Amino acid sequence: MQLRYSFRLYPNGPQRAALSRAFGCARVVFNDALRVRKDAHEQGAPYPKIGDLSKQVITEAKKVPGRAWLAEVSAVLLQQSLRDLDTAYANFFASINGTRKGPKIAEPRFKSRKDNRHSIRFTANARWKITPGGDLSLPKIGDVRVKWSRVLPSVPSTVTVVGDAAGRYFASFVVEAEPDFLPEADATVGIDLGLTHFAVLSDGRKIDSPRFLRRAEKKLKREQRRLSRKAKGSNNRSKARNKVARAHARVVDARRDFHHQLSTKLIRENQAVAVEDLAVKGLARTRMAKSIHDAGWSAFLAILEYKAAKHGRGFHKIGRFEPTSQVCSTCGIKDGPKPLHIREWTCRGCGTVHDRDVNAAINIKKAAGLAVTACGAQVRPGLLPAQRVEAGTHRDGHTTVAGIPAP
């Protein structure tokens, strides 16, 4: 399976300037190639192939005085920028034709130097290497200091250098790793995600929602006000913008760390986990949008899924239309929809008093086909409606990791 390992980079002053120059060259080549393809489309001509684009916007462009500085960076990262454009167009056309699952993808857009994230990629042809001293040697940039938090499981073939809005740099490696199977566990769990409690488990445990964005909101507002008072184009505005970006980065890092710690604990303790397929995009358009984005449900489920595949655990996702809050987990009778302010209810069939969230977590576990036990005895699952899956809303499972790696 493929995993992504990311490590913090600490370039010095000249290396930062070289990285900034490399980011700019990769952006210019991408935009030039995109303009050539857009012009061809407007003229009714076929799209130029990647080889012709490489010759036009890289090889020939270096001979023009206005693009001569392209020779100051490695040619490999410029070629990879063209490949990124080619991949973006392939995904766009596959989305239009219906051969690509998921939501529709927009046509590739021009990149801006004011974008929050910049990246360049070096392949083995660039002859980058990890030095004996532990530095990352990049062509025409130098030996950049790296903070290694763990050992790479295999030799990577490519490295992607990423710069974020907070002025931080990361080296991202995609490596082949063998699954690390954990000892078999006896327990299984159903997970009901929410806002008051981030997760409620079928065994009755409740994990409080940390609400990182809400807790940092006061500081974020203060820094944003200071930014708004700075003159545009001034150095003070640039410094204030960096402070805002760092404040947001701390929130993102804290949330990601919480997701990793909780998902690792759940995977280690349970042989299988069951979750509900939530319509996060739809919920994010409601009045609860800020709290839903703060919880980061989609990111947490993605982390939980890849960790289950990595450690040999079962991962089950039930349909979003399962009436988990309406069905009694004891007798299986469907008691009808209930407003959100009702947190406890009594089943009219068997008289069991249910906690709304715990009952939903148990029903999620049942719907996934996992055994439910109470006081050591097997509980017969009640009759539930057949699972319904909305066509075109689910994705195939994957084992790759995007972003910062799991601890």
Main sheet specs: 7 strands, antiparallel
How many runs of DSSP E, i.e. beta strands? 16
Proportion of β residues?
15-25%
Shape: elongated
> What's the order of the H and E elements?
EHHHEEEEEEEEEHHEHHHEEEHEE
- Contiguous runs where pLDDT drops below 50 for at least 5 residues: 374-407
Number of helices: 9
Helicity range = 25-40%
| Mean of residue pLDDT values | 88
Q: How would you name the oligomeric state of the polypeptide chains in this document?
A: single chain
Query: What is the end-to-end distance?
Result: 17 Å
What topology, given as strand order, has the largest sheet?
Answer: 2-6-7-1-5-4-3
CA radius of gyration: 25 Å
Structural class: alpha+beta
